[in-house]
Design brief:
Elements: E1 3-6, E2 11-15, H1 26-37, H2 56-68, E3 74-82, E4 87-93, E5 104-105, E6 107-110, H3 118-130, E7 137-142, E8 146-147, E9 153-162, E10 176-183, E11 192-200, E12 203-215, E13 220-223, H4 225-239, E14 248-250
Parallel strand pairs: 3-9
Antiparallel strand pairs: 1-2, 3-6, 4-5, 4-10, 7-9, 8-9, 11-12, 12-13, 12-14
Protein name: Nudix hydrolase domain-containing protein
Cofactor: Mg(2+); Mn(2+)
InterPro entries: CoAse, NUDIX_hydrolase-like_dom_sf, NUDIX_hydrolase_dom
């Protein structure tokens, strides 16, 4: 059933029904719909080790949300190219941003009061960030919300994008440093164990976590954190793949 929440100004449609149609993504649409028909979780629990990266307040907020099913604070578009060998649209965030600077992400962003649905949030942000028009986007389904490190509930909207739109995408340099693509089949193989330097306060650590590796044309890009967890969830619900997820901080 659609997840509807009444606000004072408008009814916000979090998840709307998407009928299964013909095409290479028909099976994926059916699998995502079945997840909700079977009573799937609206908000996924935090991954093992998240309490090392998140504040106690954010951990408590996530735990409470597992019972209350809040509205999403933000939505991302998990965009899959509709071409013979499908690819995932990813971006490298601008280094001057206040949060997640320089990291790999989907197109997407915070919900505005004027937005009427999760799909409209994801489509608006996709246009603002990379110039992707809504008429080139066909929704496939929805994934459970997950919490970002900044404490936002993020709703992933899975969609296909027309092959004809790919060459016309242009990064908004205020938000995006680069657009790149990851072969969709990559998420059907286990992520690699990856280690990266991180700062926690004034102390330097090495963070060990699963990740997929891509290339934006300027060098290797690490798909980790929330973006990778969303892809892992897509692989699990859509294709039965289960990847252990963890964050381990070592001094």
């Amino acid at each position: 059933m659609p997840n509807l929440t009444q606000r004072t100004d408008v009814t916000f449609i979090d998840r709307e029904y998407i009928p299964t149609t013909q095409g290479q993504f028909a099976m994926l649409t059916a699998k995502l719909d079945r997840y909700w028909q079977d009573g799937g979780l609206e908000v996924l629990p935090l991954s093992k080790g998240d309490n090392q990266l998140l504040s106690a307040d954010i951990v408590a907020k996530s735990t409470l949300a597992e019972q209350t099913s809040p509205l999403p604070d933000a939505c991302v578009l998990v965009a899959i190219s509709d071409e013979p060998v499908p690819r995932l649209l990813l971006t490298r965030r601008a280094v001057n941003l206040n949060s997640h600077a320089g990291e790999v992400s989907f197109v997407g962003g915070k919900r505005d009061d004027t937005d009427v649905s999760s799909l409209s949030v994801a489509c608006r942000e996709a246009f603002e960030e990379v110039g992707l028009y809504q008429h080139h986007i066909s929704p496939i389904g929805y994934l459970p919300m997950q919490m970002s490190r900044s404490g936002l509930f993020v709703r992933p909207v899975v969609a296909s994008i027309e092959q004809s739109a790919i060459e016309g995408l242009i990064a908004n340099q205020d938000e995006i440093d680069a657009i790149f693509w990851l072969e969709f089949e990559r998420i059907l193989t286990p992520p690699v164990a990856y280690a990266m330097p991180r700062m926690l306060g004034v102390q330097r650590f090495t963070l060990h976590t699963p990740a997929w590796l891509g290339d934006d044309g300027a060098g290797e890009q690490v798909v980790w954190g929330l973006t990778a967890r969303i892809l892992a969830n897509l692989a699990e619900i859509g294709f039965g793949k289960q990847y252990p997820w963890y964050y381990r901080l070592r001094a």
